[in-house]
Design goal:
single chain, about 190 residues, mainly alpha, 9 helices
Length: about 190
């Protein structure tokens, strides 16, 4: 049975949500560890700070980034907020700013590639994911996303399946293994 476009989009949206949580976890874990490059960790908002909306949070982060323009955490946090708002163009700009300050961050670069995909720039997305996989060949999220871009963006189902099968071979403990195997089998059964 072939997955409908709606089902594929739901799966992709769930993956994007997982990417966001992964990125935020990465940021949190890295901000709690000492930075060997002597860059200050982002200053948290006061604990008694009332809940603020994304626009206010973006403005606050932009002010912090203006004060500490060499801190790559601020632009990646701003990018994550824009990403969550569906402003992929703005998110891509800030992911690129973060990468200029800290090149070779596979999570940030993979999120950038996802923005390119959502912006309809699938060739640029694949180029970015291939770059991640050159310096971090085992980065599972980049492989998974490459499969998505190949299947949904480039309509090259066999190439996407091949990337996903490589992911499953190289990462036997892949957390979403069962779901991915099922999806591969569905795509193969649909004859695409």
């Amino acid at each position: 049975m072939a997955l409908s476009k709606y089902s594929i989009n739901l799966v992709f949206a769930a993956i994007v949500a997982v990417l966001g949580v992964t990125a935020l976890t990465f940021i949190y874990l890295n901000s709690t560890q000492p930075d060997n490059r002597a860059q200050p960790a982002p200053a948290p908002l006061p604990e008694n700070q009332p809940p603020i909306d994304s626009t206010d949070r973006i403005a606050a982060l932009q002010q912090m980034f203006a004060r500490e323009p060499q801190n790559p955490e601020y632009p990646s946090q701003i990018a994550n907020l824009y990403y969550d708002l569906g402003r992929y163009d703005k998110a891509a700009d800030f992911y690129q700013k973060s990468l200029k300050l800290r090149p070779g961050d596979p999570s940030v670069e993979t999120d950038l590639a996802t923005c390119f995909h959502y912006l309809g720039q699938d060739d640029k997305s694949l180029e970015t994911l291939d770059n991640v996989l050159r310096y971090s060949p085992g980065f599972a999220q980049a492989k998974f996303n490459k499969g998505i871009v190949l299947i949904e963006g480039k309509k090259d189902v066999s190439a996407g399946i091949s990337v996903w099968e490589d992911l499953l071979r190289s990462d036997p403990g892949y957390p979403q293994r069962a779901e991915l195997e099922k999806r591969i089998n569905q795509l193969k059964a649909s004859g695409q």
